[in-house]
C-alpha cells in the first residue's frame, strides 16, 4: 500500500467503516511507514480531543428560528410563483390585444 492510499483511508479507519482486509493492509502499512503512523496518531488524538469536549447544547430558540426561516422561505417561494403566474397571464392577455387603429382621417 502506498502512502497516498493509506492517507485516504485514515478517516474510514477511525470511523470503523473499513472491511477487514483494508484494516489489516493499513495496519501493516503503519508498521512499515513511520510518517503515516505519526500522521494517523495525530489525527486520532485530534478526534479524541474533540470528542472530549462534549456536545454543545442547542440554543433554546433554535426551533423557533428554524420555523421562522422556513416560513420566510415558503413566502418567498410563493411570491416567485405568483409573480410568474402574473407574467404568464399578462403575456396571454397581450396576445389577444389588438394594436391601435390607424388614424385614416389624416391620410385624406
The description of the largest β-sheet is: none
Segments where pLDDT lies below 50 for 5+ residues? none
Shape: elongated
Distance between the termini: 96 Å
Order of helices and strands: HHHHH
What does the model show?
By secondary structure, the chain is an all-alpha fold. 74% of the residues lie in helices and 0% in strands. Helix 3 (20-32) packs across helix 4 (34-53).
How are the SSEs ordered, and which strands pair?
Elements: H1 3-8, H2 10-15, H3 20-32, H4 34-53, H5 62-96
Helix pairs in contact: 3-4
Main attributes?
mainly alpha
Compact overview of the structure:
This protein is mainly alpha-helical and 108 residues long.
Amino acid at each position: 500500500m502506498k502512502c497516498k492510499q493509506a492517507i485516504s483511508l485514515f478517516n474510514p479507519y477511525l470511523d470503523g467503516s473499513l472491511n477487514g482486509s483494508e484494516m489489516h493492509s493499513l495496519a501493516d502499512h503503519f508498521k512499515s511507514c513511520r510518517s503515516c503512523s505519526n500522521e494517523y496518531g495525530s489525527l486520532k488524538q485530534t478526534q479524541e480531543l474533540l470528542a472530549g469536549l462534549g456536545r454543545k447544547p442547542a440554543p433554546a430558540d433554535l426551533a423557533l428560528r428554524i420555523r421562522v426561516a422556513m416560513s420566510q422561505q415558503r413566502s418567498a417561494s410563493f411570491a416567485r410563483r405568483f409573480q410568474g403566474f402574473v407574467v404568464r397571464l399578462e403575456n396571454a392577455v397581450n396576445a389577444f390585444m389588438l394594436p391601435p387603429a390607424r388614424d385614416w382621417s389624416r391620410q385624406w
